[in-house]
């Protein structure tokens, strides 16, 4: 096992920082547009009480697509594998996350739970009569997973997202016509927008990642997450967590991870560590430039096979 020094992360952040200039922050929401492109922060939870950190730890940001990891875990917990994967695929996505073409050919079933179409189907599966109850369920789950009872939705970001949801709205109505979502599409969209707008910091993500790194069943706030479900989610993260760059990421880095357009990234090193990264400068595939580079360096340091 690699011995990890406390001051190990800072030089990695220094090494990556010059590359941030090659990227651009997401511009589709006014709140994301305001993010500083040179921001970079990382936390690694080693599960032994030590959380190593570097960069601006005060930065708070919305999870965006990282939330799809958590909604999938909840759906698997409440509905089981058979129910979930009858309604979303487990194939690698092609095209962008909100494309109208992210469906398994001829079936109308979304390719996987990490494209927006798949995530909408997954949110529809969560318990609660009304979508708003599902947001409360997710928040409660995230507070347990991160150990942070203050986790909440950034309402301004959620409202911006809803106002700019035409594409997700199109996906929602198409899915409803396919009978893959059953609730009111407008309510579903509002729930999804709030879920994407949950605000965290890198330590929150590192804590959550560390819980998902365990090989055993996970007891969380009255729920029992089956080890097999958690492993399944890790595998999906590895091959479809980085939008269309997922295959390259899986082969180059090998750490299951999921990114979001805010520059948020969660990584899960099985049985060893949880990683949280914030780097809002994105590459052409909407992946965090700093996040990808840091993950690559982490994989080298942790000697990921
Ligand atoms: N809220 C974003 C959307 O649904 C999430 C996109 C992302 O982070 O990939 O469009």
First-last Cα distance: 13 Å
Strand order of the largest sheet: 2-1-10-9-8
Describe the sheet with the most strands.
5 strands, antiparallel
Q: Note the run of SSEs as H and E.
A: HHEEEHHHEHHHEHEEHHEEEH
Alpha-beta content class: alpha+beta
What is the CATH superfamily?
DD-peptidase/beta-lactamase superfamily
Number of domain modules: 1
Radius of gyration: 18 Å
Helical percent range?
40-55%
Shape, principal axes of CA atoms: globular
Keywords: Acetylation, Hydrolase
Binding site for substrate: 65, 116, 161, 168, 192, 243, 261
GO molecular function: glutaminase activity
Subunit structure: Homotetramer.
Q: What is shown here, in short?
A:
The chain has 305 residues and is α+β, with helices and mostly antiparallel strands.
